[in-house]
Amino acid sequence: MAENVERKRVTVKSRFERVKEKLKKLKAGLTTSLVIFVIIHIIMLIIGAINFKKCPASPNVPVYLIAEGVIGLVSKILSLGRNFILRYFKVDRIISIIGLVEVVFFICGSVWIYSAFEPKYDPVYGDQYCNRTAYLFALIFISCIYVILFSCLLIVLCLLTGFCVMVSVCGDADVESTQPERTPLPAVRNAD
């Protein structure tokens, strides 16, 4: 009896350790992706600052690059800091507000960038000119975000559809097979 209890404790501990290791790997993967996004936002900031006055076709494109670069850097650094340094400070509200501002700038940037499609990349065109690097970087960044968002949405919809189909196909059979067979109760006579 004592051996069984000890085996259960060892099994629970080993399962707990396996879950803990998987969480560490997941955290490392998330940290790596945050570092990659920090690098991308630094590049955005640099490209926007270098080409600040070089896009008369849509002057907001460099502004978008700078703003999205700064906001993205702050949010990613706070996210990284929350995991390592700021564990005891409440930064979740700040990260939420910054995330909301980032979404607003993303929508504004989409309008600014797609409305100027496709500018001239030669400065001789004057008001129709936009620096090729700044415009294409912003266009590719926003387009990649849209592809990621729509891919995630498609995956969720496929999973929900599969779940609904599974429930409709398997759900009826399970309900019918799990209902107990009813036997009629004997009639009770009153002895009046």
Question: How would you summarize the topology of this molecule?
Answer:
Layout: H1 2-50, H2 60-84, H3 92-115, H4 132-178
Helix pairs in contact: 1-2, 2-3, 3-4
Please mark out the parts with pLDDT under 50 across 5 or more consecutive residues, or reply none: none
- Main sheet? none
User: How many helical stretches?
Assistant: 4
Distance between the termini: 58 Å
The rough form would be described as: elongated
Overall pLDDT score? 81
Helix proportion = over 70%
Specify the structural class. mainly alpha
Q: Mind explaining what this structure looks like?
A:
The protein has 192 residues and is mostly helical. It has one domain (2-168). It has helices spanning 2-50, 60-84, 92-115, 132-178. The chain contains four helices and no strands. The protein starts with a helix and ends in a 14-residue tail after the last helix. 76% of the residues lie in helices and 0% in strands.
